[in-house]
Automatic annotation (TrEMBL), chains A, B:
This is DNA 3'-5' helicase. Its EC number is 5.6.2.4. CDD domains: DEXHc_HFM1, SF2_C_Ski2. It is an enzyme of class 5 (isomerase). The keyword ATP-binding applies. GO terms for molecular function: 3'-5' DNA helicase activity; ATP binding; hydrolase activity; nucleic acid binding; RNA helicase activity. It comes from Manihot esculenta (Cassava).
Length: 253, 253
């Protein structure tokens, strides 16, 4: 692969993922409108939509091997999305915050029902057993997030340490940005660390979502949750683009 | 101010800062070559260079009020710099890591210098009292960094919570990115939180550097340290640009 394609391929991978999420959202919504809900059909949809996320994460990880730095503040994201980024993606704990928000708003009937014909949202029906499981998942996830945050911190600090900081002192008076073998090797080691921590973060994202969808929620709740989560992501992306356009920034979309 | 200028003005502010750092680096280096070092002249230079950093931080904070999101992954940074970003800038603890790296490499080169009979570098001469102060500053800084990291985490999670996540559910089926009053208000509240945490991070950066330069290092050590720190920043920026160009990304420079 021509290395100049790294950026374009990575951007294409993201844009394809956003489009696929729109399609998935349509299908999830349609499933929720069915009067007679066939449980095995709902499970199939949830599995398919989760698989799409897994595929995206896998493809992204493959592409990131060429140039992982791109993923820590992608130019294809809006500034709003990038300001919310944690280790090249969303915070796994925010999956749980979204669930709490949806439960709360369903229970309190604050949510205007966006699907006709339903008397009550299914996410308002979480049992105390389910809520316990969600609480446990939340504290487990937050702890793992904190560990990964520390790993990133230590990688970031490493850049100010040997060998990179010392190589910088030895470069010529005129700073040209030329990458000699020594710099390239040091930055490559750094990349490998970033790649490892990004993969761990991806695993935490995948496992947290998997646990919610297949370990805690009922199939109809899982469909409802996924629809809400796709909607939030798609809205944030579009809102972020609009705000960037208003403020004159980011020419990449 | 035309809101479309937000991005351009912020980018200009950063580019001016990078140019000023180059000029400052020249002056710091020149001071280090003087055979007879006039202490009050060195103090003046350190004060001036520190003031330039303070001025940059102030100007940036003023501009960020218009659109703070821009600063959490600036399009004028290279991907390498953005992957190292912590709360819209560098980690304050990395100032200390750089000092340790410089001491270490100076200490190592002392052996060579001793053998060759050359004069020793000044950062290798840190007294045990100074090293104690650096250690204390490091643990204090890391603790404050962790607190701010948690504040950011909680702001990031808030986006998946009410009101934003629920507003997203109420938007039309066709997601357009239109910002109604409710969305704008919710995102503005979010911006204010991000602005507060960015200011706290800026203060920590400024105070950590101030403590190093004026509380711990001697004037000549401070000049040497600042020269090394400017060099590292300028090299990282240029190396990052070269790497981005190699991988076909980021059209903003």
């Amino acid at each position: 692969m021509d290395s100049n394609d790294d950026h374009n391929q990575s951007e294409r991978c993201f844009l394809d993922w956003m489009k696929l999420q729109e399609v998935d959202l349509g299908e999830l919504r349609q499933a929720l409108t069915l009067k007679e809900k066939n449980e095995s059909l709902l499970v199939q949809i949830v599995e398919k939509v989760f698989q799409h996320f897994q595929d995206y994460v896998d493809k992204r990880a493959q592409l990131a091997h060429n140039y992982v730095s791109l993923y820590f503040a992608p130019s294809w994201n809006s500034s709003l999305e990038n300001s919310m980024l944690w280790l090249a993606g969303c915070r796994p704990s925010s999956f749980i915050r979204l669930l709490y928000a949806l439960c709360g708003s369903e229970v309190n009937s604050h949510l205007t029902e966006y699907i006709e014909g339903r008397k009550r949202g299914d996410l308002g029906d979480l049992s105390s057993n389910q809520l316990n499981m969600v609480n446990n998942l939340q504290s487990k996830t937050v702890k793992q997030e904190e560990k990964l945050t520390s790993k990133l911190a230590s990688l970031q600090e490493d850049l100010a340490d040997e060998p990179i900081s010392i190589i910088a002192q030895r470069t010529q008076t005129q700073i040209t940005g030329e990458l000699n073998e020594e710099v390239e090797r040091a930055l490559k080691d750094q990349d490998e660390g970033m790649m490892r921590v990004m993969k761990e973060a991806d695993n935490l994202r995948l496992n947290t979502l998997k646990e919610l969808l297949f370990g805690i929620l009922t199939p109809v709740q899982a469909v409802e949750y996924l629809a809400a989560s796709k909607k939030l992501h798609l809205c944030m992306h579009e809102w972020g683009k609009t705000r960037d356009q208003m403020h004159g920034g980011r020419s990449n979309y």
